[in-house]
Amino acid sequence: MFRIPEEFRQYCQGQAEVPHLGDTVQASLEQLAKEYPELASRVVDDHGQLMPHLVVLHKGEVITRDRTADWSVAEADVLEIYTAASGG
């Protein structure tokens, strides 16, 4: 399942969690974008890649956009979307 941050829940019918369907993080993001088009424009770019300011957390590992295609997930796994920290 995807855990949806509060600021994005309005784009997926107020749900805090939605199922993910895919065997990689990237495939799961693509399915999420198909199911919730309003959410998609805030989570993935025009190429279906995770937005640069976001990361996905999977089993305590931070998955950045350059690793989503290769990162395998199981149906029961929890994926969490977070805004990446930045500083200066």
Derived from helix and strand composition plus strand pairing, the structural class reads: alpha+beta
Point out poorly predicted stretches: none
**Overall morphology:** globular
With strands numbered from the N-terminus, the spatial order across the biggest sheet is 2-1-5-3-4
The CATH homologous superfamily is named: Beta-grasp domain
Order of helices and strands: EEHHEEE
Q: How many distinct beta strands?
A: 5
Helix share of residues? 10-25%
Largest sheet: 5 strands, mixed
Number of domains: 1
Mean pLDDT: 91
SSE layout:
Blueprint: E1 2-3, E2 17-18, H1 25-35, H2 37-43, E3 54-58, E4 61-63, E5 79-83
Parallel strand pairs: 1-5
Antiparallel strand pairs: 1-2, 3-4, 3-5
Structural overview:
The chain has 88 residues and is of the alpha+beta class. It has one domain (2-83): Beta-grasp domain (Ubiquitin-like (UB roll)), CATH 3.10.20. The chain contains two helices and five strands. The radius of gyration is 12 Å and the shape is globular. The model has no long low-confidence stretch (mean pLDDT 91). The protein is 20% helix and 19% strand. Strands 2-1-5-3-4 form a five-stranded mixed sheet, with no helix packed on it.
Give a brief description.
The chain is 20% helix and 19% strand. By secondary structure, it is an alpha+beta fold.
